Amino acid sequence: MKIAIVGSGGRLGAALMREYQDKFDVLGFNHAQLDLADAADIHRKIDQLDFDVLINAAAMTNVDLCESQRAEAFQINAEAPRLLAEICAQKNAKLIHISTDYVFDGEKREPYLEDDAAKPISIYGESKRAGESNVLAVQDRHLVLRISWVFGPDRPSFIDGVIKRALENEKVEAVADKFSAPTYTRDLGEMLPRLFDVDLATGRVRPDGGLAGGLLHFANAGECSWQEYGQHALDCCDALGLPLKTRSVAPLKLSDIKQFVARRPVYTVLSTAKFAALTGTEPRSWRDALTDYIECSYLKK
Question: What is the pTM of this model?
Fold first, then answer.
C-alpha cells in the first residue's frame, strides 16, 4: 500500500512516518516541501503522485494566531483539505483528514459523540470545522478523524513543557478547570492502519475500495484537566528519579490565563465508543500511555 503524509514534520506526521516506513511505501511532505496556503503548490506536488491513502496531519494550529489571521487559517485548515479531498477522489484514493476537539463549544460536560453538533467558539475551531465539512462533501469514503491534546516524542508538547519547568523551577502551574483526553502519537500511529480498508458503516474490511467514511473520534481513554495531566507526568518523572525541583502542579483557572486571545472550550472529551465498536479494541488509558511515553523519552536522560 502506498501512503502519502502531509505534515510529516509535525508531532503526529513525524510519528506516522516512523511508524509506517517499514510497513508501507510511504512519502511525506513537511511545511517546507508543501505549502498548504498555495493551491498551485498542492496541485504541483500531489497531482503527480500515486498513492492509496493520503493522511493530512498538517494544520494551522496556533489557536490565538488564527484569531488575527483568519484568511490564512481558513486557507490552510479548510480550503487545502477540500483540494486534497478532490485530488484523492480523482485518484480513487482515501483521504484521512486529522481534525480536532476544538470544533465543539465545551458545554456538553460529557464525552462528545461523532453526531453531536459542532459549535466552535474560535477561528481555529471554525476553520477546522469548515475543513471537515469540505472533506466529507467531496467523497463519502473520506475519513475525518478528530483527536485531542496530542503528545509524542517528535515535537515538544504541553507535557514536555511541564516537565522542563519542573526540572528548572520550584513552582509549576496548570489550568485545573479545562478537560479533555490526551492522545499519544504512538497509539494513534498503531491504530490508524485498521481504518485504511474498513467501511465505517459496517465495520468490515472492503478491499474493493467501496469504503464508507465519515467522522470518527480517537483519543486515549479517560479524561483529565491540564493540571491532572501535568501532575501525572511529574509523578512518573519522580518515580524515575529525575531531579525535579518541584513534584506538584499547582492549580490555575482558565480565566487566569490573560495572554489567551481566543476562547477555549472547557470540556472536549471525545467519546471513542464508535471506534471501539468498529475495531473491537479500546484505546488504553491516558495515564498508561503517558507513563509509557515518559519512560521511553526521559529514562535515558
Answer: 0.94
